[in-house]
């Protein structure tokens, strides 16, 4: 009977992965039609992160006060701060507008003003940094070679995402973004 439990767990994890992948594909549908866009690479990073999450799902609350679990929660706390702060600044200071309608961007990404305040004063990509912290936080739930390989793949796709985003920002914001790049770090 124990063998059936393993099969049920695998089926549940596969169902979670497929359902969440469908949702991510829907959100990313415009970007998926534009290879080399930042959203295309972001989708691939999200898929790796989802796979990582599903792989460690049964480890999420196991031994909650162990050092690796504490590191995990610390990294994911930093991730939460960065995403909340970064999105807030983009929505309130970035002046999202429809004039960027032709690009495959999410609503809060349609900024028309370059945001250089708050965390953006120091790093250009707090949202991708948030995803990096989340990836590595998830990895620390169960750090084994397979999960480390998936985390490295997600990291590579997030770096590709940031580089593609920078090319897009240079096209839209021009020299002001190039100057911004000189005084800030990518992550």
The residue fraction in helices comes out at: 55-70%
Kindly provide the radius of gyration, computed on alpha-carbon positions and rounded to a whole number of angstroms. Answer: 18 Å
Overall average pLDDT: 92
Please identify the structural class as seen in this structure.
mainly alpha
Order of helices and strands: HHHHHHH
Shape: globular
Largest sheet, if any?
none
Structure annotation, total helices? 7
Q: How would you summarize the topology of this molecule?
A:
Elements: H1 2-27, H2 29-32, H3 38-56, H4 67-93, H5 126-139, H6 145-173, H7 175-183
Helix pairs in contact: 1-3, 3-5, 3-6, 4-5, 5-6, 6-7
What features would you describe in this structure?
The protein has 187 residues and is mainly α. Helices cover 68% and strands 0% of the residues. The chain is built from seven helices and no strands. The chain has helices at residues 2-27, 29-32, 38-56, 67-93, 126-139, 145-173, 175-183. Helix 3 runs antiparallel to helix 6 and helix 5 runs antiparallel to helix 6 (145-173). The longest helix has 29 residues, at 145-173. The model has no long low-confidence stretch (mean pLDDT 92).
In short:
With about 190 residues, this protein is mainly alpha-helical. The chain contains seven helices and no strands.
Could you name the key traits of this structure?
single chain; 187 residues; mainly alpha; 7 helices; 0% strand; globular
């Amino acid at each position: 009977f124990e063998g059936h439990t393993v099969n049920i767990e695998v089926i549940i994890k596969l169902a979670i992965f497929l359902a969440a992948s469908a949702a991510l594909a829907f959100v990313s549908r415009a970007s998926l039609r534009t290879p080399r866009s930042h959203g295309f690479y972001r989708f691939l990073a999200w898929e790796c992160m989802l796979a990582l999450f599903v792989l460690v799902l049964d480890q999420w609350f196991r031994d909650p006060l162990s050092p690796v679990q504490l590191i995990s929660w610390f990294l994911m706390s930093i991730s939460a701060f960065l995403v909340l702060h970064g999105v807030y600044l983009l929505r309130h200071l970035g002046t999202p507008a429809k004039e960027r309608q032709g690009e495959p961007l999410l609503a809060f990404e349609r900024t028309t003003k370059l945001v250089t305040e708050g965390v953006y004063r120091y790093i250009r990509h707090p949202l991708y940094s948030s995803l990096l912290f989340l990836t590595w936080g998830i990895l620390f739930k169960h750090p084994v070679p397979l999960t480390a390989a998936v985390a490295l793949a997600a990291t590579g796709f997030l770096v590709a995402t940031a580089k593609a985003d920078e090319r897009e920002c240079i096209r839209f914001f021009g020299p002001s973004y190039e100057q911004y790049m000189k005084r800030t770090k990518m992550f």
